[in-house]
Amino acid sequence: MSYAHLGAPTVFNGTDDGIGGDSTTENLNQWFQSGDQAYILISSCLVLLMVPGIAFLYSGLARRKSALSMLWVVMMSFSVIVFQWYFWGYSLAFGQTSGNPFIGDLKHFGLMKVWATPSVGSPLIPALLYSFYQMMFCAVTAALTIGAVAERGRVIPAMVFTFFWATLVYCPLAYWVWNSNGWCFKHGVFDYAGGVPVEIGSGVSALAYSWVLGRRNEKMMMNFRPHNISLITLGTILLWFGWLGFNGGSSFGANLRAVMACWNSCLTAMFAAMTWCLLDFRLAKKWSMVGWCSGTISGLVAATPASGFIDPWASIALGVVAGVACNFGTKIKFLIRIDDSLDVFAEHGIGGIVGLIFNGFFATGRVIGLDGVNTGITGGFLDGNYAALGWQIAAIVSACSYAFVMSAIIAKIIDVIPGLKLRASEEAELLGMDDDQHGEFSYDYVEVRRDFLAWSPHRGEPAGDSEVIEPQHGIQEHASMVRPHSSSDVGPAEEKKSSVSSLHDDKKTAGEKQA
């Protein structure tokens, strides 16, 4: 996404440079190719699919009693980000009049003057479309980060955190690498689709939030396992589908670089998935579906910063390295005793770091120039740019440090505000976030329990072949509904009388048989 602004297909004439022209007197679409605009608009929709993909993934990874809570926080974080990005997020990340290397200004507050001028990221698309596409990136990053609340975090404080985190963490990180005034951009840091703001931003921020939130109840963590692997698989497939818009669309045009990015994404994902499964098999001697999903995601994460810079053969190596690094990275949380329950740091933080380092070695101008705009750019080690790796590492260290410290500070401040304590009570944690925070459930077994109690005989009274099972316990109203002519309709006095009479008849029959 580091474009040398060589001009749009039809050179923008500078008319009304503030908004790109007067739409009442001229066709503002003339500066851009309709195919490029259509492709990025569709890619934006694909990236949007990643948000419910993350929701399903996190819901499946959590326990049953917190499954709905994970769906809610992810989807509500999207609502928060849409407002934040419109309000001032886009301006802070991509405003170009601030002049500082850290963060933008409020020139585009409320999307003011965001119309048909060539965008910050590429002259191929207008600023209005670019802002919409980048909003989806911020939404995905927030959704990934908010997984840190799993099974113990209150949801409203998490939404407050999301707004200020996007403002003070995501926007500066995006400004560093994608804004022409950002210090990483000026030093030629290679970050195609978000290794710094998206992957490091989400992984390290989730680690910081988990640290502030504290560990889950130790007894609850014993024998922990995901409650629904089908949901995990569904979420992974949606993520992969959306990721092709995430990485493919970051070429900002329907061009060969987009095709290369999609190829590299799939290659990296598959080799990371196979590597992860093999590493898990060596321990359990079983082929894990969760392992396949985790490996696929770690590969897609590593491809995010690299897929538009490296050759396909390098993507295969990247997949293997990412699979190994992220798999062993899941052990880090035990070493530092931070309960990153959904392994956001291991898969996204470490995966993003691996992809950025690969760019320093294997980025090549052959791939970069496939978009038809960035021709003649020098890559990394392969192209003789030996300083590239140093700047890649500098960006990694700076992003990790800034994201962790700032996220922890934001979380700590919110935690001390009355009514916004981040963590739920111990009783709520044992009860489950679904019941405590929402009063709704992904799996509502109340009706199942009612049916079971109404239809089953009392323990110790098995039914014979010719006997009719009568409700013996459970909710009387429900039993009457499912069996209108059962003894549940009899009043308490008659029911007692009938029971005594039946017992007397049984004793009498037994006495006659003995005689």
Could you explain how this protein is built, in words?
This is Ammonium transporter. It is found in: Cell membrane; Membrane. The chain crosses the membrane at residues 38-58, 70-88, 127-149, 156-178, 190-214, 226-246, 258-279, 291-310, 316-336, 348-369, 389-414. The chain has 515 residues and is mainly alpha-helical. It folds into 2 domains: 38-436, Ammonium transporter AmtB like domains (Ammonium transporter fold, Orthogonal Bundle); 446-514, no CATH class. It has helices at residues 34-61, 67-94, 127-145, 155-178, 183-186, 195-213, 218-221, 229-248, 256-284, 289-306, 312-329, 332-336, 344-362, 365-368, 388-416, 426-431, 433-438, 446-455, 476-482, 492-514. Helix 8 packs parallel to helix 10 and helix 11 (312-329) packs antiparallel against helix 13. 50% of the residues are buried. The model is unreliable at 1-9, 471-475 and 481-504 (pLDDT under 50).
Q: Please report the number of helical segments.
A: 20
CATH superfamily of the largest domain: Ammonium transporter AmtB like domains
CATH class group of the largest domain = Mainly Alpha
Overall mean confidence score, pLDDT = 86
Strand tally, please? 0
**Can you name the CATH architecture of the largest domain?**
Orthogonal Bundle
What kind of sheet is the major sheet? none
